[in-house]
Amino acid sequence: MRLASRMVLPAAVALVGACATTTPRELLDARTAYDRASQGPAATLAPAELHSARETLTVAEQAFADHGDSDRTKDLAYAAERKAELADVRAHTVAATQARTASAAQLQALKDEELRATSAELSDANQRLSQQGGQLRNERQRREDAERAAALAEADLARIASIKHEARGMVITLSGGVLFESAKSELLPAAQAKLTEVADALTKQDVDSRIRVEGYTDSQGSLSFNEGLSQRRADAVRAYLVGHGIAADRVTAVGFGPAKAIADNASPEGRANNRRVEIVVQPANRPADQP
Asked: For 83-123, what is each residue's pLDDT tens digit?
């Protein structure tokens, strides 16, 4: 009853002050903090701290009524808020201490159970780490094996063709004069032997990469004839590779005719260099028909 009567003054003062000026945020926060503390365990477990907070809040309310939104009002309100928070924290600390004292045996049992659970989790984590380490070692070994196989395959290819690495992938260049008779698209017997080696090397290297066969001619003859001839030659090489173990859906063929010349068509040597077939081994994530 006495507590209720003492709270009449702050409420009344706040009402009068509110008519004069806007209540500062610090005072609103102090009221909220005091209400929260007084409605919690602080009333019984930290009465001294709560009483000090109430007195400081009362002085802050009076300062607001007398001087409005002044620095003194804000400072007192801030102090009241902190004292209310201190009372609340003090009360919860006392409550926690009492709870620990009252249930020491239960708490120890809980700690023991947590320790057992932690030990089991640690054991599981160590086992998972061991398994992951084994998987990483296996993956590293597979990668190293694949890299060695790719290096061997590339070395095999380098013996029978020109090899270079470009942004579009590894480019294997075979002379058209080695593969075909002039103006024809049937593979020569010697060409079949070379392409057999190419197919064997490609199957060793990477079963997922995309393969693009590109046919080229020199500029002699009509454009339409050269484009058709280059396409037929590219198709012939593709068919041979597919027939020797490379999955059909991995291989595409396209003829460019005299386009993309790599040498001057004005000389016999330049024209010979332009009459070629390029086998482009592209990464698996690159579309097979991308130039």
From this structure: 999 999 999 999 999 999 887 888 788 788 888 888 899 88
Main-chain phi, psi angles of 170, to 5 degrees: -80, 130
- Smallest Cα–Cα separation from 279: which of 245, 219, 221, 236? 236
Buried b / exposed e across 111-120, counting CB within 10 Å, b at 16+? eeeeeeeeee
Ordered alpha helix ranges (H), 42-188: 42-45, 47-67, 71-102, 104-160, 176-179
Written as one letter, the residue type at 9 is: L
- Long-range CB contacts (within 8 A, 24+) of 158-162: 159/197, 160/194, 160/197, 160/198, 161/194, 161/198
Q: What is the pLDDT of residue 187?
A: 92
pLDDT at position 211 over 80: yes
* Residue 21 to residue 41: CA distance in whole angstroms: 34
Structural domain boundaries in the chain: 2-102, 161-282
Using the Cα atoms of residue 71, residue 72, residue 75 and residue 77 in order, give the sign of their dihedral. negative
Neighbours of 98 (CB within 10 A): 12
Helices marked H in 21-68: 25-38, 42-45, 47-67
CA Rg value for the chain? 43
pTM over 0.70: no
Q: Kindly report the CATH class assigned to 161-282.
A: alpha beta
